[in-house]
Amino acid sequence: MPSPLLVAVTLIAFVVLGRELAIRRWHDRAGPLELWSAAFCLGAAMWIASVWLLALLQVLNRPAVLIRTLLVVVVAVGYTVARLRSTQPSNPATQQPSNPIPLIASIPLLAWIATIAWRTMLLPPLSHDALAYHLPRAVLWIRNCGYRFIDLPIDARVRLLPADYELLLADVMLLGKGDALTEWISVFFYIAFVVACGALAERWWGGRVAPFATMLLSASVPVLLLHTGADKNDVMVAFFMVCALIWAGRWFSAREVGAAVVCVIALAAAIGTKPQGVMLAVCLAPLFLWRTPLRTIAKLAAISIVAIALLGGPFYLSRITNHIEGGFVAYDDWKNLVQAPWVVLTAPMSPWHDQLFVPWSAETWFWRRDELYFSHLGIAFAVCALLLPWTLIRFRQDVPERRTERFAIALAALATLLVMLPVRDIPMPHGIYVAALARYILFIVPVVFALSAAPVICALAETDRRHAGVVLLLLAAWFVWQSLQAYRIDRFVPPRFVAFAKEHPGTRVIPFDDYRAASVVNRLAKEDDVVAMDAGYGAWIHPAFGASLRRPVKFLASPADVPGNARYVVVDRGWHMIWQQKEFRDLSQWRRYLGRGRALEEDTRVMRALVRDPRWELVYFRRTDLQAVFRRR
Questions:
Q1: How far apart are CA 414 and CA 606, in angstroms?
Q2: Three-state DSSP state, 148
Q3: pLDDT of residue 216
């Protein structure tokens, strides 16, 4: 079976199995989008749990994941066939005529998904974090045939951040025989996120038009579009957080233990993906404790322990047992409480693509409209956020049975957002976290659209369905415009590089910086050459593994650690020179300090030792960010 088909079958099988479980529980008691949100949530959670089990059993290899996929396919097909046999065929005379407008309006969204899925098959991994720690983590676990705590002298994020996403990367690498399809994880969670956005609006307002409008608006958020085909986990954690909001709302309104279980699963998966899942869990906890019998609380606590154990808890346990302390974030930047709303709401209107006006500084802030790390939530989001006071008052009496739920879930989401704001990146200048905030708070996007745009469109549909149809078509046109802009300006995947990759299958060129040391050594070294690497924070490691991901790579804590069989030594120590100068304290100083720092003593110790060693020859050196490659003479 071709690798793309095998990966697709695996993803579909897990979602189908999740849908069958959801149908058996709720069937006619939940809307179609709500059921699909449960299908994606349960399916994704089972996928994560299956990889964790293989990793903990130290059988993370291709035969094991193939057997796992086969078992899931068999179970999913079995459940589906059994349900269809027991379901009575519906009477066509009782079915309502379908509205073709949502189908027409969905064509651009489906075309975007298909385009990105096709594009990712042509390209190598193309983001800083993917090359620095996401993909290297996955490769190291594949080589180990299972999970182990990575305590190597490389990027600290491999020791500090949760591991669910990287285990999924390992799974896709094993299924796809390489890293060509790893971006499909983001495509999968983009689809799941958009469905969950519609499900939230469906719960609050019902109908079909308002949920679909919420889906189109959420899908067109610029930073989300840039993440669709990237090796990043921001969309993944946003999906689980939105699912947690949906099913927490159902628990709050109906007190269904099943809804609470889905919420707990979503929170556990979010916590196992990124730390902000913990913040949402804390803010949702009062909803589960308020007027809940102790027996139910005990049952949910036991389920939570099991969910965390299967969905990322082993990483936190290994971090504790390995006595890893500290980190690269602090919680004391209270200025963000004022500055973050300004940046989030005004960034879409910035006249520059690489800087932002901020009223508290005479100088602009560094920012990149065309990068997935920064970008923005879009003009539509900013307008809807500003209209929230009016829509909350105007439509507060609509769908009264969901009024209290809307208020409780919106309050929990707002509390989570506020709790996230005072975070400070310790080694970075003030402002960098706020400038990059959009990708961290994607979970708030459907909340804003569902509270502002959705009730307006719902009211239009009640007065004249034709008006609502026109609005859906306009939103589809808006999505087309936003997606074309994202495709055109993407700094990491420019259209000209897609054309180049199409003409050069299997290329490992990194279009925005093809002369990082690991990329250079990949062009010089043979597949079986041993490469030693002095890797600092943010160092690109993944290209050194080669296209086959089989090249031996050793990591150096000191010059004395260079192995005797090493053919090349790579040095990537530029992070301090770019971002971490002591004088670079505020993002408004970027013109003066960005990329103009000095290397620390520890950054140059390996390079200085090899320059003096007659056994080694310096074959590549870039002074601006301390990139070097040495070859044994």
A1: 48
A2: coil
A3: 97
Write out the two tokens for 121.
């098959």
| Average pLDDT of the residues in 240-266 | 96
pLDDT reading at 342 higher than 60: yes
Nearest to 314 by CA among 157, 164, 151: 164
Please tell me whether residue 567 adopts helix, strand or coil conformation. Answer: strand
pLDDT value of residue 324: 76
- Nearest CA-CA partner of 264 in 29, 47, 45: 45
Q: Is the pLDDT of residue 96 over 70?
A: no
Distance CA 429, CA 452 (A): 35
pLDDT tier for residue 89 given thresholds of 50, 70 and 90: low
β-pairing, 627-632 with 566-572? antiparallel
When pLDDT is cut at 50, 70 and 90, the band that residue 417 belongs to is very high
Residue 383 sits at the vertex; the CA angle it makes with 379 and 389, to the nearest 5 degrees, is 155
Structural contact between residues 533 and 570, judged by C-beta atoms closer than 8 angstroms: yes
Question: pLDDT above 70 covers what percent of the chain?
Answer: 98
CA distance 160 to 158: 6
Centre a 10 Å sphere on the Cβ of residue 514 and count the other Cβ atoms it contains.
Answer: 12
Structure tokens at 469: 């149809």
Rounded CA-CA distance 476/470 in Å is: 10
C-beta neighbour count of 596 within 10 angstroms: 14
The structure tokens listed for 29 are 């008691």
Q: Are 276 and 420 in contact (CB under 8 A)?
A: yes
Distance CA 150, CA 139 (A): 11
Strands 553-555 and 530-535, bridge-based pairing:
parallel
Q: Which pair of tokens denotes residue 476?
A: 């589809």
- Judge whether residue 254 has pLDDT over 60: yes
Structure tokens at 388: 């929230």
Q: Phi and psi of 294, rounded to 5°?
A: -60, -35
Return d(Cα 567, Cα 529) in angstroms, integer.
6
CB 516 within 8 A of CB 626: no
Q: Grade residue 620 by pLDDT with cuts at 50, 70 and 90.
A: very high
**Mapping DSSP to helix (H, G, I), strand (E, B) and coil, where does residue 126 land?**
coil
Per DSSP, the three-state class of 292 is coil
DSSP 3-state percent helix, strand, coil across the chain (nearest 5):
65, 5, 30
Cα–Cα distance for residue pair 380/388, rounded to 1 Å: 12
Tokens (6 digits) for 597:
């720092």
Output the CA torsion sign for 249, 250, 254, 257.
negative
Q: How would residue 308 be classed by pLDDT, with cut points 50, 70 and 90? A: very high
Cβ atoms within 10 Å, residue 550: 11
408-413, Cβ contacts within 8 angstroms, sequence gap of 24 or more: 408/249, 408/252, 408/287, 409/245, 409/248, 409/249, 409/252, 409/447, 410/447, 410/451, 412/245, 412/248, 412/280, 412/283, 412/284, 412/286, 412/287, 413/245, 413/283, 413/443, 413/444, 413/447
Q: Which two tokens stand for residue 63?
A: 């035969």
Do 541 and 131 form a contact (C-beta atoms < 8 A)? yes
Reduced to 3 states (helix: H, G, I; strand: E, B; else coil), residue 424 is strand
pLDDT digits (tens, 9 = 90+) for 18-71: 999 999 999 888 899 999 999 999 999 999 999 999 999 999 999 999 999 999
Looking up tokens 């189109």, which residue turns up? 216
Q: Which residue has the tokens 């209270």?
A: 334
Structure tokens at 195: 């469905």
Size (the chain), residues = 633
Give the predicted TM-score (pTM) of the model: 0.96
